[in-house]
What we know:
The complex is a heterodimer of chains A (521) and B (428).
Chain A: H1 5-15, E1 20-21, H2 24-30, E2 49-51, H3 56-69, E3 73-76, E4 92-95, E5 102-106, E6 111-114, H4 120-128, E7 132-133, H5 145-150, H6 159-162, H7 165-168, E8 169-175, E9 181-184, H8 204-207, E10 219-226, E11 228-229, E12 238-241, E13 244-247, E14 254-260, H9 264-276, E15 282-285, H10 288-292, H11 298-307, H12 309-314, E16 317-323, H13 327-344, E17 347-348, H14 355-367, H15 371-375, E18 381-390, H16 392-412, E19 423-424, E20 427-428, E21 433-442, H17 447-466, H18 475-479, H19 483-487, H20 494-505
Parallel strand pairs in A: 2-4, 3-4
Antiparallel strand pairs in A: 1-2, 5-6, 6-10, 7-11, 8-9, 8-10, 12-13, 14-16, 14-17, 15-16, 18-21, 19-21, 20-21
Helix pairs in contact in A: 1-3, 9-13, 16-17
Chain B: H1 9-13, H2 39-44, H3 51-62, H4 71-78, H5 85-91, H6 99-111, H7 117-129, E1 150-151, E2 160-163, H8 166-170, H9 175-187, E3 192-194, H10 204-209, H11 212-229, E4 233-236, H12 239-247, E5 259-262, H13 263-272, E6 285-288, E7 307-311, E8 315-319, H14 333-341, E9 346-348, H15 366-369, H16 371-387, E10 392-395, H17 398-411, E11 416-419, H18 420-427
Parallel strand pairs in B: 1-3, 2-3, 2-4, 4-5, 6-9, 6-10, 10-11
Antiparallel strand pairs in B: 7-8
Amino acid sequence: MALRRDIYRLFENVVGPENMSDDPAVLRSYMYQPFGAKEGVWADISPAAVIMPSSTEEVVAIAKICNRYGIVFKAMSTGWGMHNLPGVEGAVSLDLRRMNRILEIDEKNMYAVVEPHVICVQLQVEAMKKGLNCHIIGAGSNTSVLASATSVVGYGPDGLSMGFSGRNLLGVEWVLPTGDVLKLGSLGADSGWFCGDGPGPSLRGIMRGWEGAWGGLGVFTKCAVKLFHWNGPPELEMKRTPPNYVLKEPIKFFKVALFSFPTIEKLAEAALQLGEAEIGWFVSRLSPSFVGLQMASGANYVATWNTGMLQEMLKYAFLFVIFANSEREFDYQQKVLAQILEDTGGQTSPISEAKEMQELTSTAVIKVDEVTRSCFRTTGGFNTSFGAMDTVDLAMNQIKAGRELKDKYISKGVLMDDGGDNSATLVFDQGHLAYTEMLLMYDHHDRGSAEGAYQYLAESNRAMLDKKLGTPIFQVSQVGKGKHGTFGPACFNYDKWLRKIKREFDPNNTCDPTAYASPEE
Amino acid sequence: MILELKDYLDDMKRCARCSLCKWPPLAQIKSWRFSNNCPSIARYNFHSYSGGGRMALGLALAEGRLDTITDELLNIVYRCTACGACDSSCKYNSELELLWPIYSTRAHLAGMGHFLPEHSMIIDSLRKEDNTMMQPKADRGKWAEGLDVKDLSKGEKAEVVYHAGCLYCYDPELSAIARDTVLLLKEAGVDVGIRGSQETCCGSTAFQLGFQGEFIKFAESNIDDWNAAGVARVVTSCACGFGIMKSVYPLLGKEMKFEVLHITQYLDELLKQSKLKFSRSFPARVTYHDPCNLGRKAETYVPWKGQDKKVLGQFILREPEKIVHRGWNGIYEPPRDIIRSVPGIQLVEMERIMEYSWCCGAGSGVKQTMNDLALWIASERIEEAKSVGSEAIVTACPWCEQNLKDAIKEAGGNLMVYDIVELARQAL
């Protein structure tokens, strides 16, 4: 649905003609979104135009035009996934790529202020120069710092020591769906960016709740995020070991190890104990398939998989990283780890000490740069199912349910055989919370595979309800309108609260509700 | 034909839209300031202007999802130096082709008669005058007037033919580099000749703009001429020429009875064999700019021909195994070794180098057709060179040299730009 030319010109006056387009070629390129597409790569609905604001003022002006003329808008930062696109006809996309500055790194108070299009690795390299580091989400360091902090989930395996994005969020500048600007936390009391919950207003729960509003509640134009102590060198020099870039020199007091356990329960117990002992810098459950897919060559992966070696060695394994500030602390953490492994029957994987494994994995856990390789390379189509940011027990129950269900679809041949259990990740926030999601790979250009994958996803969503496993994290944003109505009654009618928030903050329903919650029941 | 959009359907369908094509390989990013790798999206910002955006548009064209060819579509397709940075970054995590679908999209459009008006002038010049510079063919050999060098087009024989390339032949400021190259080779005792006015364009610009018929004509003619001349080596100091001869000529299936070398490879070899020796000091802090065509685009391209086989349920296994061109095997060390051999010189590296080097901005006809974009891209490189305290940029391609110099001239400042041959001559 085309925009009226007079309205187009109003937007154009805000951002300049070179930063707005409704050319079919531009729009078509934005419609390409394999993650979240039901089959193939194309979105069903085209944005009416793409607008690229460069400042808060421009976002405000755009939101006000939208309210005045009843135009729905939807903002995106790096834009990876169908949930970034408008789900209604006639809506405009706000591509925030021009808002890409790191505004401040406060070394003393350990936070950074960023705009929406700053990606994690950009912030990380600048923070490291000041002896600091930032949390990076599991999706990779090519994703927006602000998006995961304000709007979408926010878990990453370094969360064992660096929390998760929602908790690391401090002051926020928020352009509401109406175009009004709301400043949260200390920023709201003109006291700087240092705190998300006061002395100004704290609306953390409303703004993002547990997993974010997925772009359905306005535009977050600036935010501050917590930074963490980095005891490594200010610049990480890489060397080439084709096809990988790996650390040129090992980092002092930094050690990566893979441990395997006799059962998933023992693995969970070990993870919990690591958290309780407050040791470790990074922990992640890695499925045999996920580890194997770090290999550069698909053919090598298949050959290795067919030997059964990966499945044997890594059936219940996690990757654990110690990064200490001193030799004494390093020794202490190793001793505690040894005790936990003894208590839980954990064994060091034979490949753990290999130089190549140490080099490759050390780089990957710091830079989080190989997600596309593991998730999209095999079949092209990728999605994720189940999903919890809750207790370790709930995560384990999801893994069991997911494995059982996935096996059924793998047997049908519609999903890639990754051993069934391709669950990712583990405890975070020093162990008192756990994250999981069940990955699936399928051929999105093969109708049988794509339909099979979506049957699996629908069935996994039902399993979440039937087995009382909570709400599936990513699926809620993908299922479309009415999704909360399914899960709400089973989860304290949370959907009613989301709708109330939506009505209150977006009285004209101007901000695309598709991936969030529609105001009506 | 070697550029067929349909050959890349699978690649275009399986882009993850992860945006890795927009940045250098993540582990190699060293600062926020120099964290772009793709000049096109860095300048125009719409996703369409990225490697991934172009994959989407290539697929849309192939699938008939774009009804009209708009001016903006042509802008998206051609406001790109085809530098290949997107391709190298993508392949760190994937086994997809990205640059060749971009070329093939251009060929697809050119085949339908869609290109920019400025491209017509370049191609007309190529058809009529055998060069892309809109200059008379008869003047091509003027750069070598007075130079004591064999002319192979007149039946003389030499072991090595020096191919100057269009820009060196016709640009009066740059042709001195071509002369210096011949003199250097002769000083090292190399039996070198040229083809004077009979030399023709390498076809690089035609190929990159999607005019593959013209490219094939010039490439085949060059191969025939060099085979007939009986030379053992073809040496060029133009990175664009080298890149196309090395990476694409072999795809034509014609026997090439000669080895293709860039001058940096040859000079490096001569220095290591002590046939050349640098004795004069060049006390400066310099940085080296990797030309795309000498670096990541210099690997001989082997198109994958085979079958996708489903294993492990839906895992797509390419049989035979695909050769992935990651750009890691470009000519990176020879130019650096030459610079390091110059007494008194200090070589400092910029942040974006080798396979993730930032483009100079001149490639793929951009310098000739969109000079503003070319200068903007070059200005970014100049800022990067300054950021490491460099007094000069050394490079090994006339297009890079010209564009970087033009950008410095426009912006002001005292940063110098040297061709590596110029540096070598000064150091002898």
